[in-house]
Amino acid sequence: MTDPSEALASARAAADRLTKTKRLNASLTPPRELRKSLLLQAQAAHPSGVLYGMPIAVKDNICTLEFTTTCGSKILGGYRSPYEATAVAKLRGAGALIAGKTNCDEFAMGSSTEHSAYGRTLHPTDKTRVPGGSSGGSAALVAAGVVPAALGSETGGSVRQPASFCGVVGIKPTYGRVSRYGLVAFGSSLDQIGVLGRSVHDAARVLSVISGRDTKDATCEDRDSLRLPTVPESLQGFVIGIPKEYFPPDLDAGVRRACDRAIRLLRELGAAVRDVSLPHTPYAVAAYYIIAPAEASSNLARYDGARYGPRFNGSLDIRALYRRTRGEGFGAEVRRRILVGTYVLSAGYYDAYYRRAQQMRALIAQDFRNVFDRGVDLVFTPTTPAPAFKAGEKLADPVAMYLSDIFTVTANLAGLPALSLPIGRIKGLPIGGQFIGQAFVEDDMLEAAYALERVIAAAEEA
Amino acid sequence: MASRWETVIGLETHVQLRTVSKMFCGCSTAFGAPPNTHVCPVCLGLPGALPVPNELAVRLAVRAALALGCAVHPRSVFARKNYFYPDLPKGYQISQFENPLATEGSLSYLSPDRGIATAGIVRLHVEEDAGKSLHDRVPKHTAVDLNRCGVPLIEIVTGPDFRSPQEARAYLLTLKQVLEYAGVSDCDMEKGSLRVDANVSVRPAGEVALGTKSEVKNINSFAYVEKALTVERDRQIAVREAGGTLAQETMLYDTKTNTVRPQRRKEESHDYRYFPDPDLPPLVLSAEFITDERTQLPELPGAKRERFVAQYTLPATDAAVLTADRGVADYYEGVVRAGAEPKAAANWVMGEVLADAKDHDERLRVPAPALAQLIALVKGGTLSHQAAKRVFGDVAERGGEPRNVAEALGLVQVGDAGVVMAWVNDVLGAHAGEVDRYKQGERKLLPYLVGQVMKASRGKADPKLAQRLLEERLAG
Question: Is the overall model pTM greater than 0.90, yes or no?
């Protein structure tokens, strides 16, 4: 696409699709505002950009100059950022159109997009189910064909898990590959902006644009942007590890069947498949649910009603203002995590929880290094233990909700790149398979995903 | 009553680093701007904004650590200090906790009680400043100015090494001198670029264990350091003498009433929940970086003082005055380099130069080569000391070469014996009475007659020559 009239047509079509899919509650931007903005953006976009005219929806915890940035929270109701995230600026620089803000669990804390102050997002093919989370709005819009790609964010699987539930591709890059500047922090040492796309190619080319060095983020690596690999003919020479800890006896039978088929196809593509072990995997969720809330308790301290966002009573003394603003502005799940995080960082508990969780995190990262050091290029696992669950099913049981992250949190804890792609369906519900790669070697993961995506499409047609 | 009790004081000093921009963003650190004008998403703590360390601030902090003889650690860690306050927009302050930039330094200073004493520097770490809460700007409200928020600071923590408020003050003045010398900070307490908190306790003389300490805050000028610490020490002694026990608490000093009062309980007993800041990788400094700063380090006041005594054979007191300020010391050496005799140069710098600077914003208005020339003119007999002072003042005001200025002002001494003799003859003619009395033995009249020659020459006659000629004529 290089013609301004095509960009305008693309903007109009995206606006139409967004209006039509309003019932999903996947976009938080009012359709009229969105349409007006898309048309303006299409006129202003650079025709030379590699994403010229491509509408890309952005998760609501990523700062944009257009639209509000609420993080799915009441405490940032109506908040407009005076600056935009580096990733968003790069999209704009490549000629993309920012197609509104997508619904998410409040401050990205959740696995179902039910914890949004603005209502839950529906699964695009079964409204009784959840689309996953926390980037559920982004996944649902891509799955419904509204946008070819959307930005999400990950702290413990928030791109890959909804990609798996909705049947789209989700990529979490290596920690430090994409600037976090403008991504509203949840667990800073785990957070990365990720991409959801209709295909590996759509997701990868958006990732390529948003990746690369940024002097505004001290944790962003000083590296060029990611170069896109070509689609390989075979996976000859690839060694793919299958970690036994990700295939427990109680794994959903449909998920196991889909994984078995994917592994068979990887073999047929010429990859060497090897059983491996990542022995500290069972402790990952526990470590994650200490580290992420600890960082969150500090990151979310700034929402106190003093400077921006709604004040829940301005005439009280300062302590009461904090209590009421934070008590009423945050939802239950966010409050729960702030309490947990505050507790684990408290004097007398720090060593028992936070320090030990960090030690466990180091062991989990070491597990992966050990496997990669023995010649394994990629690890392949199911993305989630089961397909999309029913809305409300896990709301009363936070631990059950947390366990749906069990296969995804490890890549965040180890800072590794990971990708989920559709590998089958159970009773119409999509199932995702996951590749986890070595730090800053996204190309291997993308090549394998390209190849697997192609042969799965062929197998489904047959 | 002080004699039965020993005072123990440790100081925590916050010093603003001399940078143009803030610690973690590009905002200006300039003092005195209208409230909330030097702010950006980073120092306002807006959602999604991230800190990036200021390299110059790190350099200055390392330089300060080296100036204080600290071990600078190649790896230190930024940590978050969490607490809620309206002038702390992120809800945490970025500081250092478990792994500070530097530890184990020391600073020698002149104690008024014990002579040269050494204070141990326990640690030195980098942090950002908070904003300012203004409780008196808007009636019944607290206003917040975030211009200071994110300004780079170092915190310098001493051991419990001071035995009197006077010693604490002497240490602070020395610290200020060293940091100014090293170019680390302007250490201006009035602008808040140097702030002090003190830990104070008392114990019976001879006791080894430390007493219960209190922390004294709000000491915001050098003048109050001694007062605030004395008030707190006296309060503690009074409690102990009356058989009471002290609580570990934070005391706020009130300059108006010269009293301390405990901070409200609600404001203290924080659990700061320190943890490594995940937004900032550990601060890793190469050996080259540290060496580089070591070479940047100028000669420090103590070393310079000793060198002045040895190199210029100056009295220690002169050397102390001349090295108290790095600019003055450099100026003095410039004067000597330009050819002036060291002791004469010292007298001029300590006298005329510092007096003139005091009245003119500490500016050294007469260039060093000009002062050297002036000193040479006095030594060579061209100018009297009195005349030289006038030339100095004129050069300070209007500039120019001292020799030309002296001539323009008609102050050059006349050394021509013929000309001076004419004045001598005039004076002898006009003072026949005094001449007779002198000849009859009243020798003390000579200076009077010299004075008359000077008067007749309107100050231009070389006084030594005038005296010699007078003596010759009166003897003849």
Answer: no
